[in-house]
Amino acid sequence: MPFNYRKKQTTRKRSNLDLSVIKNALGDIDQGKSIRGVALEYGIDRNTLRNYLRDRSKLTKISEQGSQFKTSMIFTIEEEKALVEYLIACSKMNYGLTRQATMQLAYEYAKMNSKKVPDCWTSNNCAGKDWFRGFMTRNPELSLRTPEATSLSRSTSFNRKNVTDFFENLKEVREKYQFEAHNIYNCDETGCTTVQECPKVIASKHMRQVGQVTSAEPFASL
What we know:
The chain has about 220 residues and is mainly alpha-helical. It has eleven helices and four strands. The strands form two sheets. A two-stranded antiparallel sheet has the order 1-3. A two-stranded parallel ribbon has the order 2-4. The protein starts with 18 loop residues before the first helix and ends in an 8-residue tail after the last strand. The model is unreliable at about 220 (pLDDT under 50). This is HTH CENPB-type domain-containing protein. One of its GO terms (molecular function) is DNA binding.
């Protein structure tokens, strides 16, 4: 069964009525206006108005259904926004969180804020898969990305001084030995990687390249 349910199309279109509109329409009818006139004025079906006149308890049901979404959410909009910002910040520092790590973080985040969570969260010490799918759907700026493995030394040593020293040494070696073109090989991590494969992490869709710190060098000298 697909996660995103799509309601079947019927020949009769049902409109989503605002609770305040229905209350105002019923108030006009109580003041003596005709059902037909009020239905035309507010754009409500006459049979619908008659149903609410016969059973006004349906208004309470509509009010409860309208607030169902907010009460079923674990985190508020502001709390989810803070979680999104944290995930993006981690990925920018080459420490992106995997799906499982994000679900564990969500559980710890809920515990820290004294949130009421489902029993399966507590038993597994992490959020559920349904929550994760909903979280990614509500925050389309996030996506699961395959990162490029980046060694810790490479991540911490990539600065202006070290890069300048590298090219100065390269220039000195080339001038000293006068290498010809057929003796120069381009051996990078694309084809000669020795580092373990990184799992997908959560990062911003707008990041061109995503890195992930590993414990080994991304390539070996051959």
